[in-house]
Amino acid sequence: MKVTLSILRFDPEKDEKPYRKDYEIDVDPSFRILDCLDKVKWDIDGGLAYRRSCSHGICGSDAMMINGKNMLACQVLVHDFKNKYIKIDPIPSLPIIKDLIVDMESFFAKYDVVKPYLIAKSQPPAKERYQSIEDRAVIDEAVNCILCGACSASCPSLWTNDSYLGPAAMLKAYRFVFDSRDDAANERLDVVDSPDGLWRCHTIFNCVEVCPKEINITWHLSQLKKKCAMREF
Amino acid sequence: MYKYQSSKNSGAKSWILQRITGLALVVLMLGHYILMHYSPDSGHTYEAVLTRMQFSWYRIIDLLFVTLAMYHGLNGLWGIFRDYKLAPWLRISIISVLVILGVAFTAWAYNIIFSIPYVHNIALLL
């Protein structure tokens, strides 16, 4: 079947501003959008730039905006789209490096702010720190985040204020604040409980809508809000 | 390079107060609409208002309504401004204007409510 990919192209060395270029390709309906991009790059235009790595929804490198919604190009098939004119843009709010590749530096800098690693102050046991099934269930969803950036790039609060930590970083904060083995909950809450942190989340649910791992990010952030509020009263 | 500006001012208090005042306003608004717009005998004439204001509990509810609505509205407005990346001078200017407006309007409303006289012979009004 014939499909037209309308891709936002931008090469900072040559172009003054991004422009849209259409590619008509012949594909199987079971092709993923990533396969379509590969076909364009390998058969038509080798200059097209996009990120890809595992191609199976695990690494999170191929997050892009497809028909106006952030998603992983390796997780959606051509037959998922009724209209075979498919618009592909880089995820918004981050600077474009080239074509569909965006600069994720600020995204990971924000991620780093919440200390995304276990801080256990007790002596490490001989083998490993055990966690009960019940305690693990509290962070079951949060640990599934693959850091693709689809959520943060879909958040209107982040579009208007690039200092805002964004949902991905704060979901990671939740993942450790509610981890029974972690001892630095207050340190992390001090970070997220600030004007550019949790309180810029207005429960818009864009992050939930686009998360390729179907994590209810807004719910997790509301748990952090409750935790912060309980510290105050 | 991104640098996170941490703040000692938690937004938690303001967040929870916004929710509490919001809930209270739902109840007060319902009461207001029922009393002022759906109750046929409530009336909006000077005499009708004067009659209602003879009851201190009604004045207390009005004062509460004004205070909560002012806090909720202006805090909500501040929240909208705060969603944008503002220069420190602009942030201070906006919060100052909002606080001044809030205090001024609340004082004005209090003044109006307190200036309504208590009539000794309430039977004359009823």
Task: Summarize it.
The complex is a heterodimer of chains A (233) and B (126). Chain A is α+β, with helices and mostly antiparallel strands and 233 residues long. In chain A, 33% of the residues lie in helices and 15% in strands.
Task: Please state the overall shape of chain B, judged from the principal axes of the Cα atoms.
Answer: elongated
Largest sheet, spatial ordering of strands of chain A: 2-1-5-3-4
Q: Report Rg of chain A.
A: 20 Å
Q: What is the CATH topology of chain B? A: 3 helical TM bundles of succinate and fumarate reductases
Describe the structure.
The complex is a heterodimer of chains A (233) and B (126). Chain A is α+β, with helices and mostly antiparallel strands and 233 residues long. Chain A folds into 2 domains: 2-102, Ubiquitin-like (UB roll) (Roll), CATH 3.10.20.30; 105-232, Alpha-helical ferredoxin (Fumarate Reductase Iron-sulfur Protein, Chain B, domain 2), CATH 1.10.1060. Helix content of chain A is 33%, strand content 15%. Chain A has 9 helices and 7 strands, in the order E-E-H-E-E-E-E-E-H-H-H-H-H-H-H-H. In chain A, the strands form 2 sheets. In chain A, strands 2-1-5-3-4 form a 5-stranded mixed β-sheet. In chain A, helix 2 (105-113) packs parallel to helix 6 (167-177), helix 6 packs antiparallel against helix 7 (185-192) and helix 6 crosses helix 9 (217-232). The model of chain A has no long low-confidence stretch (mean pLDDT 95). Chain B is an all-alpha fold and 126 residues long. Chain B has one domain (12-124): 3 helical TM bundles of succinate and fumarate reductases, CATH 1.20.1300.10. The longest helix of chain B is centred in the last third of the chain and has 28 residues, at 88-115. Chain B starts with 11 loop residues before the first helix and ends in an 11-residue tail after the last helix. At the A-B interface, helix 2 and helix 9 of A face helix 1 of B.
